[in-house]
């Protein structure tokens, strides 16, 4: 296949070498199976793909896996899908923010002065990609209610098949913030690459992406272009089909979140 188009964002991607995308999938499966065999507790937590230049973390916590399993059901209601997307987003945020820097401050406690930890630096900015990314935003804000929100909208140019920005509103002083991109699906990575390009142009230096499911082809492509970002996902699925859908995937996440025709 020469190119793949993602229905949700309508983007084209250059073909990914089969050995590379299959390699991501093979690494994911063998590594997770290794955890199950040698340390069952670790299989319930998380793992990063070995041999990758980019930090890719598939979060295998039982709560995440259970909720994702519910989301895969055919005929799931808009209400339930929306609620589960938000819940999984919260759990992914917990994992993705585990390495935030903290600083010690002294406050007045009930029994006198006490030293406490506060997150250091400028507030995080959450970057939902329109439209499906909006469905994950409440879950992230539940965990980080003081975060800034930067919104990005992209659509496909019918002639070039490349992503074109139709909306962009970013937080100020991006160079001092951690940016959390949220989007349910990492399929071809065309949208993600364009978003990271935009954030870096605005000065962002620390960027993480949170996805409900990711395709090996998309992971290979984003690693080739932006290996310095981090990816957190609830599942590295099997592959993309000829229409750019992730298999087994979730279907059209945007339609399921907003209740539009599927």
UniProtKB/TrEMBL annotation:
Pathway: Pyrimidine metabolism; UMP biosynthesis via salvage pathway; UMP from uracil: step 1/1. It catalyses: UMP + diphosphate = 5-phospho-alpha-D-ribose 1-diphosphate + uracil. InterPro entries: PRTase-like, PRTase_dom, Upp_B, UPRT, UPRTase/APRTase. Its EC number is 2.4.2.9. GO terms for molecular function: GTP binding; magnesium ion binding; uracil phosphoribosyltransferase activity. 5-phospho-alpha-D-ribose 1-diphosphate binds at residues 131, 156, 183-191, 252. The keyword Nucleotide-binding applies. Catalyzes the conversion of uracil and 5-phospho-alpha-D-ribose 1-diphosphate (PRPP) to UMP and diphosphate. This is Uracil phosphoribosyltransferase. It comes from Luteibacter rhizovicinus.
């Amino acid at each position: 296949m020469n190119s793949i188009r993602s229905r949700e964002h309508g983007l084209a991607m250059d073909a990914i070498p089969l050995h590379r995308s299959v390699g991501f999938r093979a690494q994911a499966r063998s590594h997770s199976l290794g955890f199950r065999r040698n340390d069952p507790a670790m299989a319930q937590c998380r793992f990063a793909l070995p041999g990758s230049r980019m930090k890719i973390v598939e979060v295998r916590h039982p709560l995440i896996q259970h909720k994702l399993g519910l989301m895969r059901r055919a005929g799931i209601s808009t209400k339930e899908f929306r609620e589960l997307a938000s819940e999984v987003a919260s759990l992914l945020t917990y994992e993705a923010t585990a390495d935030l820097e903290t600083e010690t401050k002294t406050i007045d406690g009930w029994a006198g002065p006490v030293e406490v930890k506060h997150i250091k630096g400028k507030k995080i900015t959450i970057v939902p990609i329109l439209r499906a990314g909006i469905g994950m935003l409440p879950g992230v804000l539940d965990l980080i209610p003081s975060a800034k929100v930067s919104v990005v909208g992209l659509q496909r140019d019918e002639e070039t098949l490349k992503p074109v920005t139709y909306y962009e509103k970013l937080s100020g002083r991006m160079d001092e913030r951690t940016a959390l991109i949220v989007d349910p699906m990492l399929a071809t990575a065309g949208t993600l690459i364009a978003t990271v390009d935009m954030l870096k142009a605005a000065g962002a230096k620390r960027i993480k992406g949170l996805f409900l499911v990711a395709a090996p082809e998309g992971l290979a492509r984003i690693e080739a272009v932006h290996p310095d970002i981090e990816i957190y996902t609830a599942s590295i699925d099997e592959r993309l089909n000829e229409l750019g859908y992730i298999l087994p995937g979730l279907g059209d996440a945007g339609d399921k979140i907003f209740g539009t025709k599927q």
